[in-house]
Amino acid sequence: MAxxxxxxxxxxxxxxxxxxxxxxxxxxxxxxxxxxxxxSRREGSVRLxxxxxxxxDVHILVREAAQVCGIGTKAVHCLPVDHxxxxxxxxxxQALTDDxxxxxxxxxxxxxxxxxxxxxxxxAMVCRLRRIWLHIHHAGYVSQDKMTPTSSPSYxxxxxxxxxxxxxxxxxxxxxxxxxxxxx
Length: 184
Prior knowledge:
Elements: E1 3-6, E2 13-18, H1 21-36, H2 40-43, E3 50-55, H3 59-68, E4 76-79, H4 89-101, E5 105-112, H5 120-130, E6 133-141, E7 158-162, E8 167-171, H6 174-181
Parallel strand pairs: 3-4, 3-5, 5-6, 6-7
Antiparallel strand pairs: 1-2, 2-8, 7-8
Helix pairs in contact: 1-3, 1-6
């Protein structure tokens, strides 16, 4: 495991290398769950009625992560994208309202940035307003010498950047990064 901290004019970004895309999403989902529901570390998350959202390009990984994190695959909702491959923020917001009306707790949304599935600004506004963890999954290769704070969009709570042999998980907040260290 390698731990990185990148500083310049942008905010500090904290990173942890993981052995693949699934491990990166598991880590991000576990940290999101534990920050939203601290008691879940001790009592589990079965009774919380958590829901997790994923765009079509990353939903298989998110389903597996939800299973590993004890949230369950039934909690994962695959969100459609438009003809440009972007997630519809208004449709996502309606899904969140439906969940809230049914006493479920939307926790996490994962989208793939390089496949164009995120209308980043609109999606980020919905997530911030509703206190939902936004994970951006980069499907493209980014070499470590090109890793900068701008590689992790400032609107995402966590970002995974895939390299040939490992995945770097980036966190915007030090508290999330510190919480992630308890999993590695």
